[in-house]
Structures are given as structure tokens and as C-alpha cells.
Design brief:
The complex is a heterodimer. By secondary structure, chain A is mainly α. Chain A is built from six helices and four strands. Among the domains of chain A are: about 60 residues, Ribosomal Protein L24e, Chain: T (Roll), CATH 2.30.170; about 35 residues. Helix content of chain A is about 45%, strand content about 5%. A two-stranded antiparallel ribbon of chain A has the order 1-2. Chain A has a two-stranded antiparallel sheet with strand order 3-4. In chain A, strand 1 and strand 2 form a beta hairpin. The model of chain A has no long low-confidence stretch (mean pLDDT about 85). In chain B, helix 1 runs antiparallel to helix 2. Chain B contains three helices and nine strands. Classes of the chains: A mainly alpha, B alpha+beta. Chain A: Belongs to the eukaryotic ribosomal protein eL24 family. Chain A: Keywords: Nucleus, Ribosome biogenesis.
């Protein structure tokens, strides 16, 4: 039993899931779900579709080089069953998973540093450039020429209500 | 069909929004155009990717062995009400053949479907499909007529007792 990777989104294809397409040159394309299969049929490039692993790796969104990825690799030689080895492996899986999760979180944190400052900078620039489009309410009070000259009185509400009741 | 659909859409749109300003209707037509484009692209996609179904009477299949036949037409599926699928045996008539081959044009032959474009469920619940519909010619006992098999074949042939074809094949998918 082997856990394959989806050709399109690089997620794991568990046994009994998905579709596989065999091209005439015997290359096998495995898909985890119909979404990936359909995208393949539409001839989309996974490197250009934003939700795929290929895109995220290519654009530096995810951690790509790490020693934790070395454990998950395709091995063509079947391992002979050994009870102790299996036990140790099962223990190690949890540990490795934890290490990878922390490293990935750190990677994203590092990637996001400076984002707040950048946003602030951009907002300030926009404010400077486009301040002429809006006038602050305080300015309207100072300069009466900007306000409307006529003030409308809103007081005659009673007769309207009576009409509604009739 | 798409054009009539589009015109119908736009007419309905006009009558609904007729009372509103001129520029607004222009905006509306623009939105209709994009909708139509989407519809057309869907249609083109459907034409490009036809719905693949069973191998039934008059299905023309490629012959992927060196028996001498190039193309055969299915005249009877030996299993299934709707037709044959991957791994099933069919009776076919030879439509195109190489000169000096074992099989001549016009002969009625038996064949095993080794590749089918319609997807077929595997024993574990996943599905497999191929690029084209291809057949390997066999005799009535199920022994292949040719001595070579080209291209990938599925491992399900083992369950169908076609081990000879599997051993001749270069790639097993």
C-alpha cells in the first residue's frame, strides 16, 4: 500500500480515492479528487493555479527546504517488517510532525515581518496623494463657505403619521 | 443555440431595466457579454471532451499488437448489457489491416479491451482511465494472436485470466 501524491495539488492520495489517468506513453497522472482531475482536463498549469502546492512552493509561500521533508520520500525497496523499527517509526512520526509544524509557523512569521509597516507606509502615501478628494469635517467647521448655505428644518412630522394611519 | 440563448437573455434584461438610464443598459449588456463568453467556453469544452462511454456496437478501436490489423469495429460485447469495459472481451470486424499480416480485412475476430477512455473502478475503489480505446486480438481460447503488445495495459487483466497479454506488455498501469 502506497500513499501517492496528487499530480495537480500535491496532496496525498489515499487508497481507494481519486482517479488515475494513464497516458499512452504509460505516464500515470493521479488525482486526489474530481476538482484536480477537472483542472487537469482544462489543461491548467498547477504552477499558475494559486491553491496548489506547486504554486505556493514556486512563489515562496511555503517552506521548501527542510530536513523534515527528507523522511517522506519514495523508496522502491520494500522494508522488511521489524516490530521494534515500526514502533520507533510510529513514535518518530509524531515528533517529526511537531518539528515541521513549528518550523513552518516560524517560516510564515518570518515571511510576514514588516508587513504591518509596509501597509502603514502605503496607507500614508495614499493619504498624502489623495487628501484633496476628501475634506475633513473639522475643516468644514472652520471654513463656512464649504458648507451648504440653506438649512432645512425637519419638524412637521405629525400630519404624515396620521395619514398613514388612515 | 448559444446565440439564441444570449438574445433571449438580453431581451429579458432590456424589458426589466428599460425604464432606467441609457448608460445603465450599456453596462448591463457588457455584463451579458461576459456571461455569454463563459457559456460559450463551457460549450467548447464539452465538445472537446466528449463523454466517454462503453465500447458498444460500431465502436472503432485501435489494435495494439502485431497481428496485422490496424483498426477493428466492435460488433458484439460478450459481457454487459450496455457494452464492454476495460478488460472485457468483444467480437469485432477488422476494418483496416496491414498487408501480409496474420489477420485480413473483413475478418471477424475476438479481442480483449486493454485500454478504455471510459473510467473503470478498481478493486480498491479508485478509478482508472486511458487515452484511447485499444484492443488486443485473441483467438476463441483467449490466447493472443500477435506476439507483441504495445503501450500500457491495466493489471486487472490478471483477474480476467489474460496473463499472456500482461507478460507481453511493456508497461503495466
Amino acid at each position: 500500500m502506497r500513499l501517492e501524491k496528487c499530480w495537480f495539488c500535491s496532496s496525498t492520495v489515499y487508497p481507494g480515492h481519486g482517479v488515475q489517468f494513464v497516458r499512452n506513453d504509460a505516464k500515470i497522472f493521479r488525482f486526489c479528487r474530481s476538482k484536480c482531475h477537472k483542472n487537469f482536463k482544462m489543461k491548467r498549469n498547477p504552477r499558475k493555479v494559486k491553491w496548489t502546492k506547486a504554486y505556493r512552493r514556486l512563489h515562496g509561500k511555503d517552506m521548501t527546504q527542510d530536513s523534515t521533508f527528507e523522511f517522506e520520500r519514495k523508496r522502491n525497496r520494500p522494508e522488511r517488517y521489524d516490530r521494534n523499527l515500526t514502533e520507533n517509526t510510529l513514535k518518530a512520526i509524531k515528533k517529526i510532525d511537531k518539528v515541521r509544524a513549528t518550523r513552518e509557523a516560524k517560516y510564515i512569521e518570518r515571511r510576514m515581518t514588516g508587513k504591518k509597516a509596509k501597509e502603514l507606509r502605503e496607507a500614508q502615501k495614499e493619504l498624502e496623494q489623495n487628501i484633496s478628494l476628501v475634506k475633513a469635517p473639522a475643516l468644514l467647521k472652520e471654513d463656512p463657505s464649504l458648507t451648504l448655505p440653506i438649512k432645512v428644518k425637519v419638524s412637521q412630522k405629525q400630519p404624515e403619521v396620521q395619514l398613514m394611519e388612515e | 443555440m448559444a446565440a439564441t440563448f444570449a438574445s433571449k437573455c438580453s431581451r429579458v434584461g432590456r424589458s426589466l431595466w428599460g425604464g432606467l438610464g441609457n448608460n445603465l443598459s450599456g453596462l448591463l449588456s457588457a455584463s451579458h457579454e461576459t456571461a455569454c463568453n463563459h457559456f460559450l467556453s463551457q460549450l467548447v469544452l464539452e465538445i472537446l471532451q466528449q463523454q466517454r462511454t462503453f465500447i458498444q456496437m460500431r465502436t472503432v478501436l485501435k489494435v495494439v499488437d502485431n497481428s496485422g490489423a490496424k483498426k477493428v469495429m466492435c460488433i458484439q460485447a460478450l459481457k454487459g448489457k450496455k457494452g464492454a469495459r476495460l478488460g472485457d472481451t468483444i467480437i469485432a470486424s477488422v476494418k483496416e489491416a496491414y498487408p501480409n499480416g496474420k489477420v485480413k480485412k473483413g475478418k471477424v475476430v475476438y479481442g480483449v479491451v486493454v485500454r478504455a477512455a471510459m473510467q473503470r473502478g478498481r478493486c480498491d475503489g479508485s478509478e482508472v482511465k486511458f487515452d484511447d480505446n485499444a484492443v488486443v486480438l485473441v483467438d476463441k481460447q483467449g490466447q493472443p494472436i500477435g506476439t507483441r503488445v504495445f503501450g500500457p495495459v491495466p493489471h486487472e487483466l490478471r483477474q480476467k485470466k489474460h496473463v499472456k497479454i500482461l507478460s507481453l506488455a511493456g508497461h503495466i498501469a
